[in-house]
Write a structure and sequence with these properties.
Length: 407
């Protein structure tokens, strides 16, 4: 019995030791994962994190706000004028959640083929948020409005990542079109820190788009003109790239493939073959026009990078045309054939590289504070290009950067 008891003790010790080893391995794996996140500037917002209460409230508020959109009319229609000023107010314990222009953003999501259920799962899942620490001077937290008890309002903008999917992206840049404070010191070779470089780091390089260059220039002109009209500045052109695989360089460019891409460009990725909504406000397709006619009337070249898709025949509608200040604004749309892979709005393929391109940080208004900053920087950086300039100068400068850095 005594010997048997000794065996049981040994067996128990071995089991405990095995469990301890397994637990130790899990701890080491978790530690390595956390270290990797730290190296990449990612931190898990757990219960000990200062933002944990905020993110819990944010999840709850977003879940209920999106649930309201799910319960609303499901059919996709062009937002009415009142939709742009819509404000949904929902009370929660300790805070109030306000969602602005909800029907408009729902329309945008539907036009991209994103369901409300998928959007809700992405924002309000049971998993923990990750905090991304960037080298941005704004010190913004990358996590619409929440008012918390005894705290100032916090504003959030939810947007699709330009760098998605990011598994093979080998370079990332934040471009403002100027030189002052626009250099990021590269990490030592072998470092795993995820870096976003700036204008001066990009000097000596070009964006090689071939036939799609003219589309990018025109789109940059339209976007910067729009932001200039809103009197904003300090926005950035995000740029990432990755080498194309050999099979990606030789994709099939059959007539059928081009037709599908054309329809996707005109009707939106959520409906590649049928038009469930008008693509622009104030115009509709001519009655009697069929899909076959649209296909027959579409011209294609033998090159893969056709820069724009022909618009289906359209006509003015009396009352709706007044929604836009000038019909030329409608006709100024700059269409291109959207690619058949993820994130098509931000992705463009050149001969050798795939580029991820988009404009972000569009909420800085050129008010008194920025005007005073401009005056101070004009004296400190006399004769140099710095970021805080008038919206018209800022827009022109960013367009010039794209023009001189693309071939």
């Amino acid at each position: 019995m005594e010997r048997e008891g000794s065996r049981d003790s040994v067996r128990s010790a071995m089991i405990n030791k095995g469990e301890s080893r397994g637990s130790s391995r899990r701890r080491r794996l978790f530690w390595k994962l956390r270290q990797r996140w730290k190296l990449l500037g990612l931190f898990e917002i757990d219960k000990d994190h200062e933002f944990y209460p905020l993110t819990c409230d944010l999840k709850e508020g977003l879940r209920d706000a999106v649930q309201d959109a799910i319960h609303s009319e499901a059919t996709q229609s062009i937002p009415a004028e009142e939709d742009y000023s819509a404000k949904l107010t929902q009370g929660h314990e300790g805070y109030v959640m306000r969602t602005y222009a909800g029907p408009v953003f729902k329309y945008f999501r539907q036009s991209l083929g994103l369901s409300e259920e998928s959007y809700q799962r992405s924002l309000a899942s049971c998993g923990l948020y990750l905090q991304f620490i960037s080298n941005s001077k704004s010190k913004a937290d990358f996590f619409l409005t929440i008012t918390r008890a005894q705290e100032k309002k916090k504003y959030f903008i939810i947007m699709q990542s330009v760098f998605f999917p990011d598994e093979r992206i080998t370079g990332r840049y934040d471009i403002k079109g100027c030189h002052v404070s626009r250099w990021t010191e590269p990490e030592p070779e072998g470092s795993r820190v995820l870096q976003v470089f700036k204008d001066l780091n990009f000097e000596g390089n070009v964006i090689c788009l071939s036939q799609q260059r003219s589309w990018l220039l025109r789109q940059t002109e339209l976007d910067t003109r729009f932001l200039q009209d809103l009197n904003v500045l300090d926005y950035s052109l995000l740029l990432g790239f990755q080498p194309l695989h050999q099979d990606e360089k030789s994709q099939g460019w059959s007539l059928a493939s081009l037709i599908v891409r054309t329809k996707r460009s005109v009707n939106g990725p959520g409906s590649p073959t049928t038009s469930q909504c008008m693509s622009v406000p104030g115009v509709v397709e001519e009655e009697g026009e069929t899909t076959d006619k649209e296909e027959e009337g579409t011209e294609f070249s033998d090159t893969p990078d056709t820069t724009s898709a022909r618009r289906p025949p359209m006509k003015k509608i009396g009352q709706q045309v007044s929604a836009v200040s000038d019909i030329s604004e409608v006709m100024a749309q700059n269409r291109r054939l959207l690619p058949n892979y993820k994130n098509p709005l931000h992705v463009m393929d050149g001969p050798e590289l795939r580029y991820f391109i988009g404009i972000i940080d569009i909420f800085t208004v050129y008010g008194l504070k920025k005007k005073l900053e401009h005056l101070w920087k004009s004296m400190r950086y006399h004769g140099q290009e710095f970021s805080t300039v008038s919206p018209s100068r800022y827009a022109q400068r960013l367009y010039n950067w794209v023009d001189t850095h693309t071939v």
